[in-house]
Specification:
Layout (H helix, E strand, L loop, with lengths): L5 H13 L9 H7 L3 E2 L3 H10 L7 H4 L1 E5 L3 E5 L4 H4 L8 H7 L3 H16 L5 H8 L5 H7 L6 H7 L3 E3 L7 E3 L8 H16 L4 H7 L19 E5 L2 E5 L12 E4 L4 H4 L13 H4 L9 E4 L2 E9 L2 E6 L5 H18 L4
Antiparallel strand pairs: 1-3, 2-3, 4-5, 6-7, 8-9, 9-10, 10-11
Length: 339
């Protein structure tokens, strides 16, 4: 395994500080605000991520709002942040109408009917499928009410619906319409990204914010001179004065599934060695909870039937193995009955 060079170590120290992996954040809403949402493909990863970073879970199921952000992925976000965060992608109906193979006018009519049903107390996808089954063919029903989101993704990006709570599969009406145009929102969100995730490249920012199709062009016209800069490996890394702080890299740290330290950057080899990538990020796209030894992923962890499960990719000292099991046991204790 290659050791980190000095610049890689500096970047990692700053990132771990910004992402609350070498310091604590006791409030889950403050944590989610700082990190621009907590990744929520599986809701328990939000709880894991919070506990790992020092936050309590009292009331967490309603403290955050589960909805689709950025790359079409689910996040637990602070409700008051949604108008700004949703403004990055807004509600362009064209891709959704094309996917459903209906016209934009038909999409608008469909949305109106779904919202009306929710106003009448219909909140589940299953109920919606039954109601619309008499009017639409099965193929369209499968797309509109897909388990991956379907029409609710479009309505969520309009700021009109979100999941009822962090663990629910049902939806609820919200009022969080985008507050401005993308061009106005992007500089604000980018500043917050570099403050928490920096040092990071523009490619990292484009990936995180779901602008990878545009690449660097997405940031044309934005004044980048306000950021501190670091040159490394032929790339420019940007960060803010806040991100300039750094603590020590923890000798041993658990990372949640889809942990921001891993999934928020295009280049991950400094944290996730290439030889372990397939064992951590599965073909399905799922990113497993991992164990970081001196800042580098060295194994995976899980909780199965209430018991800790740890698998290292290479032999580790008994002291490290025992300490890892104790960390997982602590997660079990703090999340028991809460997830």
């Amino acid at each position: 395994m290659n050791e980190l060079n000095n610049i890689d170590e500096q970047i990692l120290r700053m990132r771990m500080h910004g992402l609350y992996l070498s310091r604590s954040c006791e409030d889950i809403t403050q944590l989610s605000h700082a990190l621009l949402g907590l990744h929520c493909w599986f809701h328990r990863n939000v709880a894991f991520s919070a506990v790992i970073r020092g936050a309590g879970l009292a009331g967490w199921k309603t403290a955050l709002t589960k909805t689709w952000l950025y790359r079409g992925t689910l996040h637990g976000a602070v409700y008051s942040d949604l108008p700004l965060l949703l403004a990055l992608h807004g509600g362009n109906p064209a891709p959704y109408a094309q996917w459903f193979n209906i016209t934009p006018a038909q999409l608008e009519h469909l949305c109106e009917r779904v919202l009306n049903l929710m106003e009448d107390g219909v909140y589940s996808r299953a109920e919606m499928r039954l109601i619309f089954a008499a009017e639409y063919d099965e193929r369209l029903i499968e797309k509109i009410f897909s388990p991956w989101g379907g029409i609710f993704v479009y309505l969520a990006r309009l700021g009109k619906v979100a999941f009822r709570d962090m663990t629910s599969r049902d939806f609820d009406l919200i009022d969080a319409e985008p507050c401005c145009k993308k061009e106005e929102a992007l500089p604000q969100v980018l500043r917050r990204f570099f403050a928490a995730y920096g040092p990071a490249t523009l490619q990292d920012a484009a990936w995180f914010l779901g602008l990878q199709a545009e690449g660097k062009k997405a940031f044309a016209g934005i004044n980048l001179s306000e950021y501190l800069q670091l040159q490394h490996g032929g790339s420019t890394y940007y960060y803010t004065a806040a991100a300039n702080a750094a603590g020590e890299i923890p000798a041993l740290k658990l990372l949640s599934g889809f942990d921001p330290l891993i999934v928020s950057y295009q280049e991950r080899s400094a944290v996730l060695p290439q030889e372990y990538k397939k064992a951590v990020i599965l073909k399905s796209g799922i990113c497993l909870p991992t164990v970081a030894v001196n800042g580098r992923v060295a194994g995976t962890w899980n909780i199965k039937k209430g018991q800790p499960v740890v698998e290292f990719f290479a032999p580790q000292p008994k002291k490290v193995q025992n300490a890892t099991f104790e960390l997982v046991k602590d997660i079990i204790q703090k999340t028991n009955g809460r997830i």
